[in-house]
Amino acid sequence: MTTTQSSSDAVYKKVAWRLMPVLFVSYIFAYLDRVNIGFAKLGMKNELWYTDSVFSFGAGIFFIGYFLFEIPSNILMHKIGARVWIARIMVSWGLISALCAFSNSATSFYLLRFLLGIAEAGFFPAIILYLTYWFPQKRRASMFALFFIAINVAGIVGSPISGWIMSATQHSTTLKSWQWLLILEAVPSLLMGLCIPFLLTNQPEKATWLTNEEKSIISKDLEDDLQLNKGGNKKLYNILDALRSFKVWVFALVYFFIIIGLYGLSFWLPQIIENTITTNKLEIGFYASIPWACAALGMILYSSHSDRKGERRWHVALACFVGMFAFIASGLEATSAFFILFSISIATTSLMCALSIFWSLPAMVLTGTAAAAGIALINSVGNIGGFISAEMFTWFKMHFNLGVGLMAAGISLGLAGLITLIVVKK
Q: Which domains, from first to last, does the chain contain?
């Protein structure tokens, strides 16, 4: 390894250790507040106003609010800066997430979930955009994977904690167990949001914790990316470039199909385990953590391989195809409960591998304001898949069973792989 390469590695290691823990923990809280409704459902189903249709629409309407405010939110982050805007997002979603515990009708449940989507809009694409300010293309897949492991940790740690809260508060005389769950899991987001302004730096050139030489290395690498892409992939610089780009809409479609599988798992995994393995809330939490633990390890290995090879397209497509077959296998009838859990673990690992590497693709053709708008557009359109997923699984559950829903999620993931392979150019 050359001295230059060694110095560069040291700089990015320093940046990663400074920023990634903050972003990592923040996204754990974000994802937990977004999907703990799947555990709350196990208690909410005893409410007079609750039905599976109410749950699916309430779970899904979050993504409508998210969709409507995603692009404006990310453009504001690009202009205002990550420290202030990410803090605003976390504090507002923490408050609304806690208020969801006081839903007393289908209407109030829908309204609060919609407002939660508005509050959280822009958080995820803000982080993706923020990482492009600090890491060049050749290092992004690994960084994105580290960030996405937060989803897995939210499942690994959050599932048992959610199960424990539901179990420990089931005899509470003040609030019901699902209410305690939503309130207690909102507190970390509020506290983290208040700390964000003191923990993040908006841009490398403003980092007092980097030397001038270290700033110069980052600046040169990012400039090299721009020069490299001028001769091949045309970079998109402004909002209109992003909105009228065929590439951006293709990426949005790929992400849409991936997200259908992701939220199918996130919202319905506790129910699947309750139906097939155990009804004990604490045990459900531990079983639900297994697929996410497998995915965390798989993502690290797979994204590192992608960075070493410098290849994205085939890595995304292959992970999607493996996930497709695993989802279909998990939905087969007359199979053992533990075969279902094994298949779901493979499906979750494949899906998360595809998801983490996917975001290296749009970052190769977007920069500046176009990156803020384009990444937000991809994420907002893609996250409509979360709304579709919630409704789709409920429909299959009512007319067939959840296994058919898992198979449909597999087909969706296969479509994502097919589009990536055929339409997305190298």
A: 20-199+238-422 (1.20.1250.20)
